[in-house]
Design goal:
Length: 309
């Protein structure tokens, strides 16, 4: 059995594993994909002390740093359940199960999907979630961004520099992005914003996206409108990767985020959590790393007390 098992290999999980291994405790790390969301990121300019880096490069250094210590790394494995018995038991999709005296949950988050017809069918054929990754494919075209929160408006500003025209569709009657982002977006001549727009379908010609259909929620007759676009960037938020905790007793909030205290402790004894999967208010690399360190130090604290009992 492990002293500490980290679930997740993003910034939070990597930081947790390094902090734990440096305490000399037997540490394992299980991850579906090392690097997590960082692997989907192009430019990173807010990782303090590093003015500019790129996702895959940062992910490679994370992995290299973890490998400097005796951490048992198990990748391409998905955790499917967790229980507290005498120790903590973690089930994997492969059917195997791992036992540990303590666990840190750092399974991160993923983009929320719209759930309308055409979204799955045209995924990677015009439907995109990552403007940094897919923006350049739409050079010279008209694209839609669904969602007027920070990520949607950031995406619109980003895309406006590449594509001909960006139309933002916001479901509510006002954008939810920070004022400074809204000002920037409104100052760009090729961004237009439609509020009260409920996207109902992504249309295509069988090969690629040709447009979207939406309902103008303002109009009493709610007639369906269409917009011809070559791409649709869905930017309606992040979902925590906690579905696998459904049957566990670990407390989560309404959004599904794991509830933690200031030490990173969850409601299950010996189980801590860190990063985007938790109720932490801001989801960022540097914040996830700090949270991973906190969770590892708290787990260590828990272990040294437990061994005396
Ligand atoms: P994640 O990075 O999501 O990692 C989760 C890990 O858990 C992965 O290894 C995953 O494979 C694994 N996992 C998930 N479920 C399971 C399971 N059931 N079993 C086993 N393993 C599992 N932040 C910044 O600070 N600056 C930026 O410029 C920036 N740009 C971004 C751009 C994009 C496109 C995206 C998507 C995010 C960006 N972020 C940025 C946010 C940043 O990437 C995240 O805040 C950070 O990666 C969160 O780290 P994490 O370790 O909590 O989770």
């Amino acid at each position: 059995p492990y002293d500490l098992l980290v679930v997740g290999g993003g910034p939070a999980g990597a930081a947790a594993a390094i902090y734990a291994a440096r305490k000399g405790i037997r540490t394992g790390l299980v991850a579906e994909r090392f690097g997590g969301q960082v692997m989907d990121t192009v430019g990173i300019e807010n990782f303090i002390s590093v003015p500019y880096t790129e996702g895959p490069k940062l992910a490679a250094s994370l992995e290299q740093h973890v490998k400097e210590y005796g951490v048992d790394i198990i990748t391409e494995q998905r955790a499917t359940g967790i229980q507290r018995r005498e120790q903590v038991e973690l089930q994997l999709q492969s059917g195997a199960s791992l036992t540990s005296r303590s666990v840190i949950l750092a399974t991160g988050a993923r983009w929320r999907e719209l759930g309308v017809p055409g979204e799955q069918e045209y995924r990677t054929r015009g439907v995109a979630y990552c403007p940094h990754c897919d923006g350049p494919f739409f050079k010279g075209k008209h694209v839609a961004v669904i969602g007027g929160g920070n990520s949607g408006i950031e995406a619109a500003i980003d895309l406006a520099g590449i594509v001909t025209k960006v139309t933002v569709l916001e479901f509510g009657d006002a954008l939810r992005a920070d004022e400074v982002l809204q000002r920037k977006a409104r100052s760009m001549p090729n961004i237009s914003i439609i509020t009260n727009a409920q996207t109902t379908e992504i249309t295509g010609d069988g090969k690629k996206v040709t447009g979207i259909r939406y309902i103008d929620r303002h109009l009493s007759r709610k007639a369906s409108q269409t917009l011809e676009v070559a791409g649709v960037f869905v930017q309606i938020g992040l979902v925590p990767n906690t579905e696998w905790l459904q049957e566990s007793d670990i407390a989560r909030n309404r959004q599904g985020e794991i509830e933690i205290d200031a030490n990173g402790a969850t409601s299950m004894a010996g189980v801590f959590a860190a990063g985007d999967v938790t109720t932490v208010p801001y989801k960022q690399i540097i914040i996830s790393m700090g949270a991973g360190a906190t969770a590892a130090l708290s787990a260590f604290d828990h272990l040294i007390r437990e061994s005396v009992e």
